[in-house]
Amino acid sequence: MERRQVTLKEKLKAHYDNRNFQPQETSANKVGVAFYWFMTISLLFESLLILIPTLFKDNTTVKLLCQVLVFVALVECNACWFLTYKDVSNYVRKTFIEKYFTRTQETPPGWRSCPSCQLDAPPRSHHCKLCGKCILKRDHHCFFTGSCIGFYNQRYFIIFCVHMIWSNAFALYLQLTYLNEAMPIFSNYFVNYLPGINVLLYFWGNIPIGMVLIVIHSYFCIFCLGAGIFFFVWQMMIVSCGQTSFEAWKNVNPYGKSVLDNFRSVFGPLKFCWLMLFFPVPFDLSEDGIKWEIQPKSVKGH
C-alpha cells in the first residue's frame, strides 16, 4: 500500500498545533541568580571574618557598627531580591479581560491577542519568552532575580538597586582599605591590582593568593556598583516620565501624567513610600496594571 504524502499545509498545521508554550530555561538566568548569591555569601564572610576584624581590631565601636551595617545590607538586599523575584502578581490572566469587558469574544481595543499565552493581554503588557508569560506593564527581564520587572515589583527592583549601590560601595571601601594597607595603590604595588597581572604575580610568588582573591572580588563589586547605579538612574528617568523601558526605546509616552502621579503609580502613596527604603512592605497602588488611560496630549503621537 502506497503511503500518502503529507502536504505542506498539513505540516504547518501540525507544527502550529504542537507548539511548546513552556518557558525555556536559559543559562543566563541560572548564572545571574548564582552570581547574586555568590556575591551575597562571599561578601558576608569576607567582611565579617577578614576585612572588619583586621581593619578595626583596635576600635570595638567602629567594628561593631560595621558588622551591623553588613547585616543591614544582607537583610535589605535579600528582602528586596525576594520581593522582586516573586513576580507572579505580574502574570496576565484570563480573568483580567472579564473585569472590564464582559461577554465579549473579541480582543478589546488597545489589547492584543498573545499566541503564546493564548489569551488577550492588556495595554503595556508584553510576553516574556524566558518566563513564558505575558507581564503586566513589562519593563525588562532581570537575570539577577530570574524574573520580569513589571507593574507589581518595579518598586522593589528600584529599592533593590538602592541597596545594591550603598552595600557594594561599603564593601568596596573595606576591600580597598584592606588592600591599600598591604599594597599601597599609589605606589609600585599598583600593578598588583591590574587584571591578569596579579594572577601571574601569584604564580611567581610575589603576591599571596588571599590578596589576589580580594582584588578579583573588588572587580565584581565595581561591576555590581556600576550596574546598580545604571539601573537606578534609568528607572528614575522612565518612572518620572511615566514610561516603561520598551516605551522609552520606542520614544512614545501615551500614558505619562505629572511627575508626582507617575511616581505614585509605581510606589503608591508618596507620604509612605520612603519607608520602603527601610522596610520593603507593599502599599496599595492607585492602578491595577490592566486599565490605562491615554493622555490627551499623547493621542496624536500614539
Automatic annotation (TrEMBL):
PANTHER family per UniProt: PALMITOYLTRANSFERASE ZDHHC16
Record protein name field: Palmitoyltransferase
E.C. no: 2.3.1.225
Limits of the Palmitoyltransferase DHHC domain: 112-251
Membrane topology type: Multi-pass membrane protein
Catalytic reaction equation(s): L-cysteinyl-[protein] + hexadecanoyl-CoA = S-hexadecanoyl-L-cysteinyl-[protein] + CoA
Organism: Patella caerulea (Rayed Mediterranean limpet)
GO MF, any single term: protein-cysteine S-palmitoyltransferase activity
